[in-house]
Design a protein that fits this description.
Length: 313
């Protein structure tokens, strides 16, 4: 069986054109865009920056003493400590609600892409069971990933503090920094692939067979064990496409004098503006999955003459 990356992408692009531009219907854009917005609520975006200062060493001293300074401030200001604790509780509740809504939104968006629809209410209620199953997995997995990140951050902080105050040779410092960089890259790759595989393949299998997230993971892992290299390349392919999208967005911002960037920054409006991209990516993933046989094809059984296997398989 020959697995292609370009052909599913082309087919996904054609589905996007047919759904969004043939004919163009702004109300359809806003309805599908709303489901894409819900589905992408838990997508992560990050950036970093740095600066130099003449008080380099003093800044590092302040940085490494910050945990103790913060702890002393909290113990000296119990009222603020309690308010911060209450704020953290509300933040956890808010994050949980966002994860729950996004889990349901993933099935809503997938449903509209599969059937070329723009429904909101029906898939919201229809895939309640699957959405709740996905929510609990994302909730546990998300906090586990966060806990691992915190442990890594603590390890990096302690290691950097030892390197800063200790008397180490330059090769030892280089090796220590290299180890931390590799650990962080490994963390990003492992958890990135898990998140990608869940969104692109596990959710479609849940949708097709109307099963819980663990059973869908079981079906996907059975396929992954046979086609590991193929799916690793898929992740790299998505990464390259993501870079191309970022470049395209930057170009779009420049030619619109940053007006386009302002529109993209507005959460729901941004999802509508970027709908052709998110729609193509969603269609691409299920077109790619369909290459592995009828039991992985989520499209209607009468489409392209494909037969859908029964859930028992």
């Amino acid at each position: 069986m020959s697995i292609s990356y370009s052909r599913p992408l082309s087919m996904g692009y054609q589905r996007m054109k047919k759904a969004l531009f043939q004919p163009f219907d702004i109300s359809k854009w806003f309805r599908i865009g709303f489901t894409a917005f819900l589905a992408g609520l838990t997508d992560c975006h990050g950036n970093g920056s740095g600066n130099n200062s003449g008080n380099h060493y003093n800044e590092w001293d302040n940085f490494f003493s910050f945990p103790q300074t913060a702890w002393n401030w909290l113990t000296d200001n119990p009222l603020w400590a309690n308010l911060i604790l209450v704020g953290l509780v509300f933040l956890i509740i808010l994050i949980s609600v966002i994860i729950w809504v996004s889990a349901r939104g993933k099935f809503m968006f997938l449903h509209n892409v599969v059937h070329d629809n723009s429904e909101i209410s029906e898939p919201w209620h229809e895939y309640r069971k699957e959405g709740n199953s996905l929510f609990w997995f994302d909730f546990v997995f998300g906090w586990f990933a966060f806990a691992v990140f915190v442990l890594l951050a603590a390890y990096f902080f302690v290691s950097a503090k030892e390197l800063y105050y200790g008397d180490f040779t330059k090769p030892a410092i280089f090796l220590a920094i290299l180890q931390m960089v590799l650990l962080f890259i490994g963390y990003m790759i492992i958890f990135g692939y898990i998140g990608l595989f869940e969104k692109d393949f596990v959710v479609p299998l849940m949708y097709k067979y109307r099963i819980g997230v663990l059973k869908a993971w079981g079906k996907f892992l059975a396929l992954l064990s046979k086609k590991l290299f193929t799916f690793l390349i898929y992740g790299l392919f998505i990464f390259v496409l993501g870079i191309a999208v970022v470049i395209g967005v930057i170009f779009f911002a420049l030619i619109t004098c940053c007006i386009g960037l302002l529109l993209i920054a507005i959460p729901y409006i941004g999802a509508v503006v970027l709908l052709p991209i998110s729609y193509t990516f969603r269609a691409f993933s299920i077109e790619f999955l369909a290459q592995f046989g009828d039991k992985y094809n989520v499209f209607p059984k009468d489409e392209l003459g494909l037969l859908v296997d029964s859930p028992e398989e």
